[in-house]
Design the sequence.
C-alpha cells in the first residue's frame, strides 16, 4: 500500500509538498481569499491570532515587489500561556504559524509538522511536550488548512 501511495504522490507534485518539517498544500483560492479563510478558521476553531505579517506589503515599502507572502501566527492561549510560563524562551518561536505564499504554479499554504515542533521547538527549549497533545493539535491544524485550501 505504501509504495502505491508514494507513486501516486509522485504524479501529483503540485498538490502537496512535504518533508519532515514542512508541509505545503496548494490552495484553490487567491492569496487574499486564502488568508481570510485561514484567519476565519483559526478564530472559529478557538485559537487566537497573535500576528499577521504581510511580507509583500512590507517589501513594497522598500521598493521591492514580491508575490504574496503572509505569515499568520496563532495560539490556543491556555496551552501557550502554560508553555511560556514553564519555558519563557519558547516565546521566541511564536507558537503555531502558517505561511500563505504564491508562485507561478499558484497559491500555497505551508505549515510546520508535529516532528518539527517536538524536535526543533520543544527540544531546543527543553520543554517536555505532551506528544499526544502535540499530535492532536497537528491534526487540527492540518484539517483546518486542508479545508481552507479546498
Sequence:
Amino acid at each position: 500500500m505504501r509504495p502505491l501511495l508514494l507513486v501516486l504522490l509522485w504524479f501529483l507534485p503540485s498538490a502537496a509538498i512535504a518533508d519532515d518539517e514542512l508541509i505545503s498544500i496548494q490552495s484553490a483560492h487567491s492569496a487574499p481569499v486564502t488568508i481570510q479563510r485561514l484567519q476565519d478558521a483559526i478564530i472559529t476553531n478557538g485559537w487566537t491570532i497573535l500576528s499577521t505579517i504581510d511580507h509583500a506589503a512590507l517589501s513594497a515599502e522598500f521598493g521591492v515587489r514580491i508575490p504574496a507572502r503572509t505569515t499568520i501566527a496563532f495560539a490556543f492561549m491556555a496551552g501557550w500561556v502554560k508553555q511560556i510560563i514553564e519555558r519563557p524562551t519558547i516565546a521566541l518561536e511564536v507558537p503555531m504559524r502558517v505561511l500563505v505564499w504564491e508562485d507561478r504554479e499558484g497559491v500555497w499554504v505551508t505549515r510546520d509538522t508535529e516532528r518539527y515542533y517536538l524536535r526543533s521547538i520543544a527540544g531546543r527549549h527543553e520543554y517536555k511536550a505532551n506528544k499526544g497533545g502535540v499530535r492532536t493539535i497537528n491534526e487540527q491544524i492540518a484539517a483546518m488548512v486542508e479545508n481552507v485550501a479546498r
